[in-house]
Amino acid sequence: MTRERLTLYDTTLRDGAQTTGVDFSLTDKRHIAALLDGLGIDTIEGGYPGANPLDTEFFAKKPTFRHARFAAFGMTKRAGRSAANDPGLMSLLDADSDAITFVAKAWDYHVRVALGCSLEENLASLTESVATAVTRGRETAVDCEHFFDGFKANPDYALACARAAHAAGARWVVLCDTNGGTLPHEIGRIVAEAAKVVPGTHLGIHAHNDTDNAVANSLAAVLAGARHIQGTLNGLGERCGNANLVSLIPTLLLKPAFAERFEIGVPLENLASLTKISHTLDELLNRSPDRHAPYVGASAFATKAGIHASAVMKEPQTYEHVAPESVGNKRRLLVSDQAGKSNILAELERIGVRLEKSDDRIVRLLDEVKQKESLGYAYEGADASFELLARRILGQVPDYFEVERFRVDVERRHNAQGDLVSVSEAIVKVRVDGEVLISAAEGEGPVNALDLALRKDLGKYQRYIEDLELVDYRVRIFQGGTDAVTRVLIEFRDAKGESWSTVGVSANIIDASFQALADAITYKLLKSGAA
Q1: What's the rounded Cα separation, in Å, for the pair 514 and 362?
Q2: Where do the CATH 3.20.20.70 domains begin and end in the chain?
Q3: Tell me, what's the pLDDT at 378?
């Protein structure tokens, strides 16, 4: 059976830039665009040329893509002006892009109140803008803003906007759920109505996620006739975000209801890079990846309960809706206070340790994990600490160094400029092969000072840790009050790009931090083959 083609259009570089706390540099934009092109996205929207210096520079020369088209985004011309006399429209036409996407009002209320023009003038602006871009040889799309709210308020006018865009030559007429409030059953019904005036082969969907239905709404639109989907990587976007292409793409490729009827530009073999692409974007934005994200999250294929873990090892397909490897993820049988032998064996196998299920050390390790987690330790997010715990029980971790004592002082004082500042200083005394080494360091805070002091001089092991970088530090308080227990998770990275996390627990946050720091350095020495 011949499958119908769906077109994927990414708006990460514009919609995603409206996410709270997200600011793309020009280098970021180029990097992300290359990731999207490599994945197989059909069209990549670069932003709004003329809106700011960064976007203007980005559109001075379009990126070189192997597959994707490059689109510029902007408004239709203003009412009362010709296309040639509208600076915004001219900046779109002057941008070095393959396509132009116009945003146009499709809700009669917004036309009258926001634009301050008549309904007829709005249609005329839409028509002239599209026709001008088409005449210039640009593939053109029209994002019909607030289409679904407009349809509910005045269906005739909303459909008139869609019809005018198509008649003027727009390749895609995109129906936008701009405030994200429309539900899947409404999307399906309204898209079906729109398909009566615009062929589905020219109809698209742009869904926001304010009811957590953007992906579902996009799929409902496809089933109702739309053949163009707009979305962003990791669902970035203002307020609650946009339709998440990282969830949509594997659904379209792997779920029979869509895979048997439709095809997309992303080849099946590229799907294995999806997890890496998703996490790379988070790294660029200095964000921690969502552990619970569908398909690509660290917990997406994780099993914690012992009885489930045993079943997953025997028949993974009964507990996993797709194979983790298909999206570049992996199965994880978590080590926790709910773990059984299956979890422990799976984790040991992952780190390269093979033991028989009858080995007495498995029970010892399981008991130790449960005991430590009852005190507040968490090995789900600290793989390196678990590996050290396991290998210590197996007698596989050398005593690289012994910490005899450490001290941290925090002093609030005036600096040379007369500013009142807080200064942290740490002193660490360690013993390496019988040699006593004492190091001191100042840091931005007590943990930073401790980290610098501990790694300042480890004698013969110093060369193994020169490239270490502390990249994340997280604290959680248990049993709040004066007797609170603190859990610290620390993530390190080395020059090879490898990263690992360790955990420390104590009533004292500095002590908990030091435990995690010491584990992180020990893990690095172990992995480096230090003797």
Answers
A1: 28
A2: 7-266
A3: 78
